[in-house]
């Protein structure tokens, strides 16, 4: 563990509505509009419109432009380039490996280094830059899957399950429920890497973000809107839709769909039963237990703050490994559909 003589991070405040950077009068991922917000990524429980100024990576700003209409007051923060945000604070956006444009934010002030991770993962993802391990004094980490039971399989294993299910059911389409930002594009890119070069059909709600990813340089291959496609042409096809559409009336127009759901929560049997899916795919855009603990060890901070999920188990792990830690109580952070 890093040796550190306090200041005690008095300039960083964990408020129920977000992380406040006191000397800069700024917030990270605030739960309501503020004068200045630093945004880690585009998911709705971290990114919102209405801020006076929004500081984020160019990709996150583009995503927020599509989802929330953010345009005025936007300041692009390139990865690895420190920017002054006022009050003697430097902020550096570093890749988080969560979704396209996602960032950890390194804050430097009064000789102290603080990293706020937002959401992150350590496993490979062809649609975004990998997590950058960076030393700091205080590490603020998510804990969405902060229980030892959560150990996600390699994504290649789950993509093989998907392709095998499709091959075993040539007269059915495989309908995959996936979060519209990040998860859907990752599945498509992994299918392409696995050799699936046939058209992939999209529910209308998935199209804007997929097209945005392509415009930002992420190739996704032959994507087609499912609107107006005859039922007979969809036998054996792969269709991507929002999780809510799996049991919606919309799905009834498909040829006997084999329903799949891509989520880290698909490792929990109760969640699989709740969703009523035939093919659970354990594909997560968050760090699992091993990735969380490995990351804390790699970063090796003097202190760790834990938020956004199952704080107690990760707090206990820190205690057992003689690492100073505390759990935060922030509002507005949801499970998403991971």
Layout of helices and strands:
Layout lengths: L11 E4 L2 E4 L4 E3 L7 E3 L14 E4 L1 H11 L5 E3 L6 E2 L5 E6 L7 E7 L2 E5 L21 E6 L11 H14 L5 E4 L5 H11 L6 E3 L4 H9 L7 E3 L12 E4 L16 E5 L6 H7 L3 E3 L7 H11 L3 E7 L1 H10 L3 E4 L11
Parallel strand pairs: 3-4, 4-5, 5-6, 10-11, 11-18, 12-15, 12-16, 13-14, 13-15, 16-17, 18-19
Antiparallel strand pairs: 1-2, 2-3, 7-8, 8-9, 9-10
Q: What fraction of the residues are assigned to beta strands by DSSP?
A: 15-25%
Class by helix and strand content? alpha/beta
- Which second-level CATH architecture of the largest domain applies? 4-Layer Sandwich
Name of the CATH class of the largest domain: Alpha Beta
Largest sheet: 7 strands, mixed
Separation, N- and C-terminal Cα atoms: 31 Å
By CATH, the topology of the largest domain is: Metallo-beta-lactamase, Chain A
Q: Which bin fits the share of residues in helices?
A: 10-25%
Physical arrangement of strands within the biggest beta sheet? 7-8-9-10-11-18-19
Total count of domains = 2
InterPro entries: MBL, RibonucZ/Hydroxyglut_hydro, Xnuc_lig_assoc
Protein name: DNA ligase-associated DEXH box helicase
GO molecular function, one term: RNA endonuclease activity
Organism: Novosphingobium sediminis
